């Protein structure tokens, strides 16, 4: 294959949604056997572009060339027949079906329309084994935590003979170990001539894996070229139109007394003997591998999941989590991990989503609509949410902007303890900085913040202390002066208490 | 500009459909466009509309209530019995409400707390309600209900039929409930995404339970008005109202998947069906042909609304985009 | 108030011990004699159309009362909920459970004839009650002919209406035998013999509310042209009356129904309805129980008997009698 | 351990409920546990079970089909008319199927391609179906259908009632369709997550459309068997089957939210209701009391199943957790 023929060329792609020009004359060329990273702010149009390639959306104008030949897919079926596989940003799975069927959907081994179950199970087992995943392929996928589902999505995309694999933020909810597995796979497949379009908001990943890079801003492809042309700063500058000096705006704030303390928390099957505390003004991180149990601990504190034993005190007063509204009354707040499932009310407006938990915009049992509008607008302005208006349904926002709306919901409330589970998942670097700034402000105001993140740099950059969990136990706690990536990883992989 | 276009374009689309129908009907029949005929239509839709408000609340919260019709029949008939026995209208009314709330609470208990599918629970409660009243009356209707009929046959200020009055009151109550109270807001959230609502501190079970109780109360009111209008306690008359209520609700733009819908839309949906039934009778169309026509016109109404809705969302977003940009 | 017939609940059974006996007897045509001498109780099943329909539940009550006077017969009621399929299922159950006699209030006699004939051949006697098309020769039948019911009201209506009167007609549910037969009687007795104009004719599903709604619309279109409402049952007629009353035109309109139950009696007494026809469930029940007993005990050697009970016209002249009766049996409260 | 507990505990739980009911019934009535009574029960549930298979397919794909009952009534009656006219049973049967497929295709068109709520579309088609047949027959039933009755009254091999045979055949077909064909698996995928199915390349519209056509075909078969059994063409008899079918389907573990359910479960659900109706008649329970009891027992059955399901999933997770750790 000569250098001249590209694996895929996107020429002058434009796409409008009612009222929004999502893509405006985008050009991208993908070389065979390479990883082409696409970066841009939240709502820049990356996912839309990928969906157009995949045939899920119809483009308004432009051409797509695959191996030099113009193609036009009327739907994902045709694109997958043409050898394009895609991992969607919002996970798309069939909760009631087995792992095997989720992997093989639309590709079931079959004869004359009949599914060959045994063969499918065997192949699924092989795929799982090959990827060192120890699940039973007959298990229903709804019983898996989100990170594992994401791993399966990845496995699924690479398991079949695709020539082009599109990955839309594949690593947004998995930790370094899995990311490494993913990258190993990508490198292996690259050698076989398979090409990748790779969307991510994580700079370090992009420099690790990408060969080429395109930056999209406001629906336009701003600049494109080999990764060597770029530096982190230049990418950021292109993306957000300004440069960002220090992405982690950590400020030393005076740390007060203990606000939140948990002793020996246990929950059947998921975690044991978890003791931790957070002080006023402190940002405490929780690190660990996928499935370590961090989310579970926080969910129990927030009253979302049952807690079997253990004691919790809030500013010295005993607190027994009952349910979420009880937690909110006690000024314990949490932004959940799975935005789509446990975050947004997709069909309702941003305004209603922002004020859902707020008592401030009500008087008695009645809503104070004026106040609601005012406060919701203020909050979304503050977080720089990008939407067509506060009455837009939240479901039509880009992933990152949905996350900001959720953040706005909780920032409407007073809190003693604010728990953030993967708060920057799917958030662009500019917005991340906003969120970090907000966290810093909150810490200054005396909030106690507990943050779960699978992005170590973020934890190392923002936290005062980090608890590390492994297999349901807390294996260690590091103070800021002891922070080091290796130490965290070491604790995270330790299997004994 | 935003201010003009934005509020409730969906409602406008229904209003347009309704106005279009009224226009066509006026041409088709000279008896149509008269005050008495409009009063008739309002009277005829009033009971089903009250049921539809109840159904609307439930559908918005993502469930369904099939017990409404027979619950109305039961509560209405028992209220008649109570009135015949005591002669006290207030007491009878309260008794009817109590029954409605009780059945609603049972429905809600199974649906909200035991997480059973509302379709089955309320379907089962339907036969239970009917069984209870039949068991008590031995399958006979209650005649000579005397002054109980003021609930359905009197006129306020000499001109407003009381059934219409009840309907309007319920419209206002439902509208306030949905739009201006925390309860209403929570119902939308629960219907939109129950898990997310829970994670935002909404007490999903309690709210759903409350919604079923409210639905039961509404159904009981509809039942008592119904028996008043019929001037008799006829339990079986309630049957079928739940389905008509669903139809009105859905034509009115309430989404079956929950999380969307308004009281005013439901009212319009109900009026559309009322006008349809009315004009077909005015024209003396053959009963069988009526069934076919009605079926297709309902589909067309939903279709028209669904198209205009697509249209709407684009206008709405555009309107607010301009707003943002300026 | 209306609960007086609650306690007339179904007789409980305790004759499961004799099933094998009965099975033997089944093959034997002389089984009835054996049974009577042994003092065993006969199992009789009543299969009504729909227990939530007023007439069917009244008939069930009257049958239960009638059977209580016999100590060698017990009655079980199996509701068909208005569905023919369910009625056929219940027939199957009765036969396989070796009931000695089946009283069938048929939903669709024409459709059920073959099946009934088959069961009779196999040894289970059957009676058609209230409705029969006489399709089975050796089935008993105690009926009030729906055609006759229509006829007597229609004849009376002829005397009450002008020859060029304008009427509106209310029908029962589509395909309903009662409605079809009553309507046929009107056609033959009244409509074809006079110059009466039918302004409109619609299905009201037996429901009072539908009668009301249709009438409201009719008054709207036809104004004071309507001279009479011809309804295939009373509930719809009374509904139409309520609508006419509300519109202030009730005094100029005559209302004819069929069924003759409590609501109609009250309405006629109040001068609201003009006439209705009664199929008397009490007479029917007494006759049915008598015939049933005769056949089971062998008094009737033929094995079946067909009688037609008279249908009665109720007008304001004789309504007092019925008011009294319904007051006595609790269907009307004071 | 895993191997023993895992496969189909849900089905087992229904089997257990059914066995429990049979046990209790045998004690309550000595007439219950006999071959003829069981044949009766099977005969009695067969038609509604066929409808329930149709409903099951649709509910699994996340929609609902309320037209089934009257479609069955219409297709069955027209098949009778065709038979009376031609005397050709095969032709009549094919004609019935054609009608079923046509109505199904219309339903599917509006639901799948125009994205209208299936509840309303199929409800509207219900009255359309009934209107069409009534218009044709003038509201008269069709008697004297002669040999058409072999479809409902004959016996295979002298012992198997043909309705039961039809039910078993449909059970097998539905089972194969759902479990072993791609079409079936796509229906699960669509019901489970239509967006994801679309993204995975499943042709959602086409599959839904096909599902409605299959449902129409099934309904037509049920209708023809029904008319055969009734020995007459009675259009109105179909009414209500759609609801009974839903009840059987949901008791049988089909999830209303779509994506889950089996043919065998539906069959069991239908049997549970059949046994319930049967025993109440055997015991001669008062009709009104029957309604109340039936309502509550249905709720209890669903409740029991829902508990056992929760039990199951926890066992299952434990089982696979062990698996992972070893
Ligand atoms: N289905 C839709 N309907 C209307 N607008 C949409 C739709 N999908 C996307 N948009 C709009 O198109 C724009 C681009 O969205 P897109 O999801 O492509 O952003 P993105 O670059 O992937 O952002 P993120 O990094 O947050 O995922 C946004 O303004 C979004 O609101
Ligand atoms: N719904 C569930 N059912 C059964 N087990 C679960 C479920 N969700 C999580 N688990 C188990 O609980 C453990 C902890 O999962 P959790 O999601 O809390 O991990 P985590 O540390 O938050 O990791 P991450 O958030 O990065 O996925 C894992 O062993 C996982 O298998
Ligand atoms: Mg995106
Ligand atoms: Mg987590």
Automatic annotation (TrEMBL), chain A:
Alphabetized SMART domains for the sequence: AAA
Membrane topology, record value: Peripheral membrane protein
Keyword field contains Transport: yes
Residues covered by the ABC transporter domain: 8-243, 253-496
Annotated coiled-coil segments of the chain: none
Superkingdom: Bacteria
Pfam families per record: ABC_tran
Keyword Transport: yes
Localization annotation: Cell membrane
Predominant place of localization: membrane
GO molecular function annotations of the record: ATP binding; ATP hydrolysis activity
Keywords on record: ATP-binding, Cell membrane, Membrane, Nucleotide-binding, Repeat, Sugar transport, Translocase, Transport
A cellular-component GO term for this protein: plasma membrane
Protein name: Monosaccharide ABC transporter ATP-binding protein (CUT2 family)
TrEMBL record, chains B, D:
Compartment(s) where it occurs, according to its Swiss-Prot or TrEMBL record: Cell membrane
GO function terms (MF aspect): transmembrane transporter activity
Pfam families associated with the record: BPD_transp_2
UniProt keyword Hydrolase, yes or no: no
TM spans (from-to): 12-35, 41-60, 67-85, 91-112, 119-138, 158-178, 209-227, 288-308
Family matches, as InterPro entries: ABC_transp_permease
Membrane-topology descriptor: Multi-pass membrane protein
GO cellular component: plasma membrane
Main location: membrane
Stored CDD domains: TM_PBP1_transp_AraH_like (cd06579)
Classification via PANTHER family: ABC TRANSPORTER PERMEASE PROTEIN YPHD-RELATED-RELATED, RIBOSE IMPORT PERMEASE PROTEIN RBSC
The protein's name: ABC transporter permease
Organism: Lachnotalea glycerini
């Amino acid at each position: 294959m000569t250098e001249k023929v590209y694996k895929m060329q996107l020429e002058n792609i434009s796409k409008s949604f009612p009222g929004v020009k999502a893509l405006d004359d985008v050009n991208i060329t993908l070389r065979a056997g390479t990883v082409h990273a696409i970066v841009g702010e939240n709502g820049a149009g990356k996912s839309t572009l990928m969906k157009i390639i995949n045939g899920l959306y119809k483009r308004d104008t432009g051409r797509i060339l695959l191996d030099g030949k113009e193609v036009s897919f009327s739907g994902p079926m045709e694109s997958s027949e043409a050898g394009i596989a895609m991992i969607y940003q919002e996970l798309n799975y069939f909760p009631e079906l087995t792992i095997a069927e989720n992997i093989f959907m639309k590709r079931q081994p079959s004869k004359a329309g009949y599914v060959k179950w045994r063969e499918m199970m065997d192949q699924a087992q092989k795929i799982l084994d090959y990827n060192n995943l120890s699940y039973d392929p007959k298990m229903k996928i709804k019983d898996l935590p989100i990170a594992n589902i994401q791993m399966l999505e990845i496995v699924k995309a690479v398991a079949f003979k695709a020539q082009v694999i599109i990955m839309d933020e594949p690593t947004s909810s998995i930790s370094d170990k899995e990311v490494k597995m993913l990258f190993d796979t990508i490198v292996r497949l690259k050698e076989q001539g398979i090409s990748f379009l790779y969307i991510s908001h994580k700079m370090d990943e992009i420099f690790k894996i990408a060969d080429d890079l395109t930056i999209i801003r406001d629906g336009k492809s701003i600049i494109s070229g080999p990764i060597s042309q770029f530096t982190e700063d230049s990418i950021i500058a292109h993306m957000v139109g300004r440069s960002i000096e220090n992405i982690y705006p950590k400020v030393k704030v005076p740390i007060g007394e203990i606000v939140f303390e948990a002793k020996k928390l246990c929950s059947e099957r998921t975690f044991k003997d978890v003791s931790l505390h957070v002080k006023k003004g402190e940002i405490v991180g929780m690190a660990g591998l996928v499935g370590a149990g961090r989310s579970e601990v926080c969910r129990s504190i927030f009253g979302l999941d049952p807690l079997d034993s253990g004691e919790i005190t809030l500013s010295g007063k005993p607190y027994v989590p009952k349910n979420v509204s009880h937690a909110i009354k006690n000024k314990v707040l949490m932004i959940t991990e799975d935005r789509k499932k446990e975050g947004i009310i997709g069909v309702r407006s941003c305004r209603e989503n922002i004020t859902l938990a707020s008592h401030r915009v009500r008087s008695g049992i009645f809503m104070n609509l004026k106040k609601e509008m005012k406060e919701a607008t203020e909050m979304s302005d503050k977080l720089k949410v990008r939407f067509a208006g506060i009455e837009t349904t939240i479901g039509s926002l880009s992933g990152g902007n949905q996350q900001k709306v959720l953040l706005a919901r909780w920032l409407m409330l007073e809190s003693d303890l604010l728990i953030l589970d993967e708060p920057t998942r799917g958030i662009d670097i500019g917005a991340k900085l906003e969120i970090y700034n907000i966290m810093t402000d909150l810490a200054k105001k005396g909030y106690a913040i507990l943050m779960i993140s699978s992005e170590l740099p973020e934890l190392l950059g923002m936290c005062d202390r980090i608890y590390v969990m492994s297999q349901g136990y807390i294996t260690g706690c590091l103070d800021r002066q002891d922070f080091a990536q290796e130490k965290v990883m070491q604790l995270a992989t330790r299997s004994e208490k | 500009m935003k201010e003009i276009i934005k509020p409730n374009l969906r409602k406008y689309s229904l209003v347009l459909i309704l106005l279009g129908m009224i226009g066509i009907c006026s041409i088709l029949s000279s008896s149509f466009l008269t005050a008495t005929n409009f009063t008739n239509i309002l009277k005829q839709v009033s009971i089903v509309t009250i049921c539809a408000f109840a159904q609307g609340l439930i559908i918005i919260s993502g469930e369904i209530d099939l017990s409404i019709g027979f619950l109305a029949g039961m509560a209405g008939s028992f209220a008649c019995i109570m009135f015949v026995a005591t002669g006290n209208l207030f007491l009878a009314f309260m008794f009817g409400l109590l029954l409605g709330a009780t059945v609603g609470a049972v429905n809600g208990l199974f649906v909200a707390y035991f997480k059973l599918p509302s379709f089955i629970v309320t379907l089962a409660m339907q036969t239970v309600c009917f069984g209870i009243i039949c068991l008590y009356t031995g399958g006979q209707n209650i005649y000579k209900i005397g002054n109980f009929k003021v609930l359905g046959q009197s006129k306020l200020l000499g001109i407003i039929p009381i059934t219409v009055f009840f309907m309007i009151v319920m419209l206002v109550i439902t509208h306030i409930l949905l739009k201006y109270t925390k309860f209403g807001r929570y119902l939308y959230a629960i219907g939109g995404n129950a898990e997310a609502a829970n994670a935002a501190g909404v007490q999903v079970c309690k709210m759903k339970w409350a919604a079923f109780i409210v639905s039961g109360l509404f159904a009981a009111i509809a039942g008592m008005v119904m028996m008043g209008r019929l001037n008799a306690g006829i339990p079986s008359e309630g049957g079928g109202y739940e389905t008509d209520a669903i139809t009105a609700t859905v034509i009115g733009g309430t989404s079956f998947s929950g999380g969307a819908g308004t009281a005013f839309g439901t009212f319009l949906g109900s009026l559309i069906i009322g006008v349809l039934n009315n004009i077909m009778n005015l024209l003396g169309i053959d009963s069988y042909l009526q069934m076919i026509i009605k079926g297709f016109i309902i589909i067309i109404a939903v279709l028209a609304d669904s198209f205009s809705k697509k249209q709407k969302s684009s206008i709405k977003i555009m309107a607010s985009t301009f707003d943002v940009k300026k | 108030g209306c609960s007086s017939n609650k306690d007339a609940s179904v007789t409980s059974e305790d004759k499961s011990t004799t099933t094998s006996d009965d099975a033997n007897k089944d093959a034997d045509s002389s089984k009835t004699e054996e049974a009577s001498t042994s003092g065993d109780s006969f199992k009789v099943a009543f299969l009504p159309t729909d227990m939530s329909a007023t007439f069917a539940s009244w008939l069930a009550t009257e049958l239960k009362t009638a059977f209580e006077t016999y100590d060698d017969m017990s009655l079980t009621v199996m509701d068909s909920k208005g569905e023919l399929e369910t009625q056929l299922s219940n027939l199957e159950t009765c036969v396989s459970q070796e009931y000695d006699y089946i009283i069938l209030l048929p939903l669709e006699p024409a459709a059920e004839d073959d099946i009934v004939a088959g069961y009779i051949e196999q040894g289970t006697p059957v009676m058609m009650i209230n409705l029969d098309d006489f399709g089975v020769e050796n089935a008993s039948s105690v009926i009030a002919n729906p055609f006759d019911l229509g006829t007597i009201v229609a004849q009376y209506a002829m005397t009450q209406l002008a020859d060029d009167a304008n009427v509106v007609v209310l029908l029962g549910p589509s395909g309903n035998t009662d409605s079809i037969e009553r309507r046929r009687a009107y056609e033959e007795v009244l409509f074809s013999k006079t110059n009466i104009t039918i302004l409109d004719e619609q299905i009201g599903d037996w429901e009072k509310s539908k009668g009301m709604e249709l009438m409201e619309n009719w008054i709207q279109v036809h104004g004071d042209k309507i001279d009479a409402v011809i309804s295939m049952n009373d509930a719809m007629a009374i509904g139409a009356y309520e609508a006419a009353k509300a519109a202030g035109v009730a005094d100029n309109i005559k209302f004819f129904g069929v069924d003759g139950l409590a609501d109609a009696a009250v309405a006629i007494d109040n001068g609201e309805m003009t006439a209705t026809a009664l199929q008397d469930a009490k007479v029917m029940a007494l006759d049915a129980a008598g015939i049933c007993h005769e056949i089971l005990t062998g008094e009737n050697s033929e094995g079946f008997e067909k009688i037609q009970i008279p249908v009665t016209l109720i007008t304001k002249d004789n309504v007092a009698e019925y008011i009294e009766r319904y007051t006595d049996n609790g269907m009307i409260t004071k």
